[in-house]
Design goal:
This protein is of the alpha/beta class. It is built from eleven helices and nine strands.
Length: 315
C-alpha cells in the first residue's frame, strides 16, 4: 500500500495515490464497523494519546472509538485543565510526552502550526485533528470518502463549498484534497467571509447562492465560526440564513441528485434548514459521521505500520 508518511499533519503533502490508499483501507473499516464484532488488532499493544487544546465532541469521540476498535490503549488528556494553563510550553509538553512513550498522538490546537511543532519534538506518529485556521486533514478525508461512496467517484465533480470560508480549516483541507483529485471547486460566501487571495487556489468564487450552486453535484455547507470572529462579519443570523442558508429553494439550483454535506456541529436555521439536514434522500451528514470513524482507523493503521517499519529498520 502506498503511504509513506510518519505523520498526518495536512493534506498538502499527500499524493493522489496516497489519498486513494487511505480511502480504500477506510472502506474495509466501514465494513468492520457495521459487523457484529467491531474489533481489529492493527493497533494492539500501542498507546494512543488524544490531546485536545480546543473543545471537540465528535472529532475526539471519533478518534477515541477508532483507536479502541483497533486495540490501542487510548488516553484522553484534558488540556484545558492541564499544565499548559499553568504556563508550560508546548516544548515542555512534548518532552513530557516522550517520557511516556506513546505511539500515536492526536492533537487539536487553536494555533496554526502548533501540531507541526509538536511533531518535530516527539518520537511518535502525530495526527492533526485541526490546528487554527490551517488544516483538518481527517475531516477532508472523511468528506472525500462520503462523496466517493455517494457518487461512485471522486474526480471531475462540481463541488460547492458554502459559508464561512475565511475561518474554516475544513474548507482549506477540502479545497486542497478535492483539487488534487481533479474536481471543479466553487466557493460561495459573503465577501466578509471569503479570504483574500483565495482564487489563487484554482477555485471559482461567488457571493450569490443561485449562481454558485448552478448544476453542482455536491453542496458542502460550513459552520459559522463565531469563536474565531472578532468583528461584524455578518449583519444578523436571520439575514445570513436568507442569503446563504441552504434550503430547498436554493438547493433546486443544484443537480437533482446533488448531495448535501456539513462537517458539524450545525446551526440549524442559520447555515442549513433543519428539514433538509435530516432528508435521507439528499443529506449525507450522518454518513459523514460514520465515515469519520473508518477514516481515522485507516489513518492510524497506516501510520502505525510506518512507525513499526521505522523501528524495525532502527533495530
Amino acid at each position: 500500500m502506498t503511504f509513506t508518511h510518519r505523520h498526518l499533519l495536512g493534506i498538502e503533502h499527500l499524493r493522489q495515490d496516497e489519498i486513494t490508499t487511505l480511502l480504500d483501507l477506510a472502506e474495509d473499516y466501514v465494513t468492520l464497523n457495521r459487523a457484529t464484532q467491531k474489533h481489529g488488532d492493527a493497533l494492539a499493544g500501542l498507546t494512543q494519546i488524544n490531546m485536545f487544546f480546543e473543545n471537540s465532541t465528535r472529532t475526539q469521540a471519533s478518534f477515541e472509538l477508532a483507536g479502541k476498535r483497533l486495540g490501542a490503549d487510548v488516553m484522553n488528556m484534558a488540556m484545558q485543565a492541564s499544565s499548559i494553563t499553568k504556563g508550560e510550553t508546548l516544548i515542555d509538553t512534548a518532552m513530557t510526552l516522550n517520557a511516556m512513550h506513546p505511539d500515536l498522538l492526536v492533537v487539536r490546537h487553536p494555533h496554526s502550526g502548533a501540531v507541526d511543532l509538536l511533531a518535530q519534538k516527539v518520537n511518535c506518529a502525530v495526527l492533526n485533528a485541526g490546528d487554527g485556521r490551517h488544516e483538518h486533514p481527517t475531516q477532508a478525508l472523511l468528506d472525500a470518502l462520503t462523496i466517493r461512496r455517494a457518487k461512485g467517484r471522486l474526480h471531475r465533480l462540481n463541488i460547492a463549498i458554502c459559508g464561512d470560508i475565511a475561518h474554516s480549516r475544513v474548507a482549506r483541507s477540502n479545497i486542497i484534497l478535492l483539487g488534487k483529485m481533479e474536481n471543479r471547486i466553487r466557493l460561495i460566501a459573503p465577501p466578509t467571509l471569503m479570504p483574500s487571495g483565495i482564487s489563487e487556489f484554482g477555485v471559482e468564487v461567488f457571493d450569490d447562492m443561485a449562481e454558485g450552486l448552478k448544476d453542482v453535484d455536491v453542496v458542502m455547507m460550513l459552520r459559522l465560526q463565531r469563536e474565531r470572529m472578532d468583528g461584524g462579519f455578518i449583519p444578523s443570523s436571520r439575514e445570513y440564513y436568507h442569503r446563504y442558508g441552504l434550503d430547498a429553494a436554493k438547493l433546486a439550483y443544484a443537480k437533482p441528485d446533488a448531495i448535501v454535506m456539513h462537517p458539524g456541529p450545525m446551526n440549524r436555521g442559520v447555515e442549513i434548514d433543519g428539514t433538509l439536514a435530516d432528508d435521507i434522500n439528499r443529506s449525507v451528514i450522518q454518513d459523514q459521521v460514520e465515515m469519520g470513524v473508518a477514516v481515522r482507523m485507516a489513518a492510524m493503521d497506516l501510520l502505525a505500520r510506518n512507525q513499526r517499519a521505522l523501528q524495525g529498520g532502527a533495530a
